[in-house]
Amino acid sequence: MSIPDRIILTLYTILMAVVAVLIIIVSLGIIPPTTLADYATNIPGSWQYAIAGVIILLVSLRLLVAGLGGTGSNTLTIENGKEGKIHVSQGAMEDYIAGFTNDVFGVHGAKVVVKMLDNALSVRINASIEPGINIPDTTDEIRQNVKKNVLTVIGLEVKEVEVFFKHIKAKE
Q1: How many CB atoms lie within 10 A of CB 142?
Q2: First-to-final CA distance of the chain
Q3: Which fold, 75-168?
Q4: 87 phi and psi, to 5 degrees?
Q5: With a threshold of 0.70, does the pTM exceed it?
Q6: Model confidence over 23-69: pLDDT tens digits?
Q7: pLDDT above 70: residue 172
Q8: What does the domain layout of the chain look like in residue ranges?
Q9: Rounded to whole angstroms, how far apart are CA atoms 86 and 154?
Q10: Rounded Cα gap, residues 79 and 64, in angstroms
């Protein structure tokens, strides 16, 4: 979520907290409901309240879109030179690495998370491994494959590769 979205979310949360406190105060009888009813009768015909309503609706829609991930895909900037930028979707890199990780004998169900660190990548792999497979040797093979393939395809060094085997089970 971007910084403007976080600011909007903070302001929206404060507004909702004020509304919640108001509901609590009215329900406890601290402010009589007739006072709110008298205030609400002034709303019809007042353009200021209509504008406030539109703004709250737009903020709600923006937060909904941001929450659903509709603000665009995450990209990894590979090169940012005079001739332009080269971007690769983070999801594409994760799918690519998961694909050849699953090709390692005894490994399946790989899920990958890629992060950019100072012109290098950090890769975290969660996978399952079959019983009887040597985990240290398999982990080394995965690390070497990731570093070699990523360097060949996008020209970036892989700084670290973390491999987590969540399950030891046979392929289904």
Answers
A1: 21
A2: 37
A3: GMP Synthetase; Chain A, domain 3 (3.30.300)
A4: -120, 145
A5: no
A6: 888 888 888 878 878 877 877 877 887 888 888 888 888 777 776 66
A7: no
A8: 3-67, 75-168
A9: 10
A10: 32
